[in-house]
Amino acid sequence: PLPPGDTSVLAGLYGPAEAKVSKELPDRAALEVLLRPKVGLPGVMERSREQLLRQTCEAVVLGVLHPRTAITLVLQVLSDAGSLLSCCLNAACMALLDAGLPLTTLFCGVTCALQPDGTILLDPTARQEQEARAILTFAIARSERKVLMANTKGSCSVEEMQQCLAAAQRAADTIFQFYRDSVRRRYSKS
């Protein structure tokens, strides 16, 4: 159980299943990402995040192995105390990994908040996000720490963005270590 106030997302992966003809792709699996808010119906914010998540997942899933099928990833927000998009990215990667889908690389999400004085906060809380001058979320691939996706809200200079990216890439190593430990724990139990 997570301490109260932490951001948590539950991920479920369904498929490969038969795709609806309208969504069927002849050369690879069609990937759909659905983001469900804690309460209420998905809105504009969820839709734009679904797109970012889908693009990131599509960049690493070897969908060519299952052409004309559909894979659906459902992310249910349980609690949002800040850094939600990066939490969704991490839940998505763990779900893909857990389902045994072939991936070209693992990825993780890291959120940075740029404070008014220029300091960088990693994994900001909702309150820190409100006070920030800019919020940057990166999806970082394990191979070569490549950036798969970057999303910026607010304003920052190119130099500040590069500093945030460097901090996010360093933080990514810790997340990949967490993935390794979780997978090891999971398979040592069976």
UniProtKB/TrEMBL annotation:
* Gene Ontology MF term list: DNA binding; RNA binding
Q: What InterPro entries does this protein's entry cite? A: ExoRNase_PH_dom1 (IPR001247), ExoRNase_PH_dom2 (IPR015847), ExoRNase_PH_dom2_sf (IPR036345), PNPase/RNase_PH_dom_sf (IPR027408), Ribosomal_Su5_D2-typ_SF (IPR020568), RNase_PH (IPR050080)
- Kindly state which keywords UniProt assigns to this record, in alphabetical order: Cytoplasm, DNA-binding, Exosome, Nucleus, Phosphoprotein, rRNA processing
* Disulfide bond found in the keyword field: no
Q: What is its main location?
A: cytoplasm
A single GO BP term for this record reads:
rRNA processing
An example Pfam family from this entry, by short name, is RNase_PH_C
Stretches assigned to the Exoribonuclease phosphorolytic domain = 5-102, 106-170
**GO annotations of cellular component type:** cytoplasmic exosome (RNase complex); nuclear exosome (RNase complex); nucleolus
Q: Which domain of life is it from?
A: Eukaryota
Instruction: List locations, semicolon-separated.
Output: Cytoplasm; Nucleus, Nucleolus
Determine if rRNA-binding is one of this entry's keywords. Answer: no
Query: What do we know about how this protein assembles, alone or with others?
Result: Homodimer. Component of the RNA exosome core complex (Exo-9), composed of EXOSC1, EXOSC2, EXOSC3, EXOSC4, EXOSC5, EXOSC6, EXOSC7, EXOSC8 and EXOSC9; within the complex interacts with EXOSC3, EXOSC8, and EXOSC9. The catalytically inactive RNA exosome core complex (Exo-9) associates with the catalytic subunit EXOSC10/RRP6. Exo-9 may associate with DIS3 to form the nucleolar exosome complex, or DIS3L to form the cytoplasmic exosome complex.
Q: Which family does it belong to?
A: Belongs to the RNase PH family.
Record protein name field? Exosome complex component RRP46
